[in-house]
Amino acid sequence: MRSLSILFLLITPLLAAGKVTKHSFADSQIFPGTQRDYWVYVPEQYDATQPACLMVFQDGHAYVNPKGQDRVPERFDELISAGEMPVTIGLFINPGVVPAAIEGGKPRKNRCFEYDSMTDRYARFLIEEMIPLLESEHGLKVSSNPDDRAIAGASSGAICAFTAAWQRPDAFRRVFSAIGTYVDIRSGGDYPTLIRKTEPKPLRIFLEDGSNDLDNAYGNWFLANQTMLSALQWSGYEVNHQWGEEGHNHKHSGAILPDALRWLWKDHGQTPVTTHVANSQSPAKDWLIEGEEWERITTGHQFAEGMQVTPDGTLYFTDVPDSELYQITPDGTQTLLSDDTGRANGLALSPDGKTLYLASSGAQEIRSYEISSRKWDVVASGTGSNDLVVTKHGHLYYTDPGNNKVWHVNLTTGKRQPADPHFQRPNGIGLSPDHSRLYVAHFTGNMIYNYTINPDGSVKDKQPYFHAHLPYDMTEGRLDGMASAASGELLCGTEFGIQIFDDEGRSKFIIPRPHPGDRRTNYLTFGGPNRQTLYLATADHIYKRQVKLQGAP
């Protein structure tokens, strides 16, 4: 037997072993004052002339421990050597700790704040600080292709990994989540709802948990992970899972890790991770077009606002700080029509499509602009304004956030009077498809108010009707421009993205801003053939996108 063992060793090639090094980092600007250890794994097959794939692990010490349950460097060695995953650099990061401020004091543990927060802060920490550190301090070439990047963790590290990919699918697209903390610690239990309501993202997710996981005041971990799975499947995500019987530990996840890694990296280099809108049961299937993305049509503006599209397909918009009015014709030609709009913000189009109305806030006027003759006129003066709408019955309404009022102007008689004299910080304003109801957004809150319009243009029946989601690190939704769909839904630009509300006031669907670097989701409108081109302004950019959802006339 001993001679056979020796013969086996002689004919079996030695496994190529990567190198693991330990380091520390204490210069974070995103998590100031923190200190942390991190480890870098470089596979033996790494070619310094070629950018490598990357996989980031939270609670890094557990994953690099050669006597632990996971032993990731060992698993990477095996899978990379077997060609079952690409050449991948491993980055293993511990959560930060802020040292005690006084002798004998207590240090601040940053783990819950970093890992359980549902914001983009930790993703930015990786993208802006840790990954550049690999390149600058360690001389490694890391691929910038999100399809080449994976992220993993257990417990709070798992929800951290999911959040990083959810917030920044332009940076991470493969997620391994073990015993994930999708419970009510920092609103993590909201994820199944958000997944069902939000436009599907290009992510591949592997979930692991055990039936004896935690069950405490924050929630039931095993049930929460099952709910996550259900939401991801319902929304058309590429998702896999393994349930076991273990508790809140790494025993089961460590045992299945090789198979999970094989699945996460399957078809790498051949089939990229993408969305599967056609498989979704959400409104994405009915309202969006598979493969249609946002197209940027103009950029470099100070604050683009007030978009309107005339029946011939020409887009008009303002650039508020520069007092500019632009048009973009269907062939893409952009023309500056005026650089003296009085710092116009919102735009409204007359029912016949021949006249634009402008909320000229800097000039304290409401102005009109006849498109064919380019003739200007003043509709109202001595008034603040932000956004405005015009009904088919000849009534103009506009918001005046500086004076906390909503105004009504009868365009036939010229009479102006408050529609609502007591509205704290009104901003965006819209109409129902039949122009029988007026919608006004509370900019600093999360509600859009609904009024009934009387035949004389006055309003009644005010209710805080439409309920918007708020970002998890903000107390205001920045509810702004609106547009109505022909089928009755209301679309509103919010800090969370475009939120689409049903006719009962519920936020039913969310379209994130086109790019994480965009400043705002501040204005939107429909145009194009059959009013199925959605236009979106994000302060410095304007985008368009073909959709199935049809805008109201």
Placed side by side, the strands forming the largest sheet appear as 1-2-4-3-7-8-9-12
Tally of individual helices:
10
Q: What integer value in Å does the Rg equal?
A: 27 Å
**Shape, please?**
elongated
Main β sheet profile: 8 strands, mixed
Low-confidence stretches: 1-12
What structural class results from the helix and strand content?
alpha+beta
Approximate strand percentage: 35-45%
**Ends distance:** 85 Å
The tally of beta strands, per DSSP, is 35
How much helical structure, as a percent, in the residues? Answer: 10-25%
Mean pLDDT: 96
Task: Walk me through the structure.
With 553 residues, the chain is α+β, with helices and mostly antiparallel strands. A hairpin with a 4-residue loop joins strand 21 (388-390) and strand 22. Helix 3 (72-81) packs parallel to helix 9 and helix 5 (121-136) packs across helix 6 (156-167). The longest helix has 16 residues, at 121-136. The protein starts with a helix and ends in a 7-residue tail after the last strand.
Tags for this entry?
7-stranded antiparallel β-sheet; disordered N terminus; alpha+beta; 8-stranded mixed β-sheet; 553 residues; 35 strands
SSE map:
Blueprint: H1 2-11, E1 19-25, E2 36-42, E3 53-58, H2 60-64, H3 72-81, E4 88-93, E5 97-98, E6 108-109, H4 111-116, H5 121-136, E7 149-154, H6 156-167, E8 174-178, H7 191-197, E9 204-210, E10 215-216, E11 219-220, H8 221-234, E12 238-244, H9 251-264, H10 284-287, E13 295-309, E14 315-319, E15 324-328, E16 334-338, E17 344-349, E18 355-360, E19 365-370, E20 375-381, E21 388-390, E22 395-400, E23 405-410, E24 416-420, E25 426-431, E26 437-442, E27 447-453, E28 459-467, E29 482-484, E30 490-494, E31 497-501, E32 507-511, E33 523-527, E34 533-537, E35 539-546
Parallel strand pairs: 3-4, 3-7, 7-8, 8-9, 9-12
Antiparallel strand pairs: 1-2, 2-4, 5-6, 10-11, 13-14, 13-35, 14-15, 15-16, 17-18, 18-19, 19-20, 21-22, 22-23, 23-24, 25-26, 26-27, 27-28, 29-30, 30-31, 31-32, 33-34, 34-35
Helix pairs in contact: 3-9, 5-6, 7-8
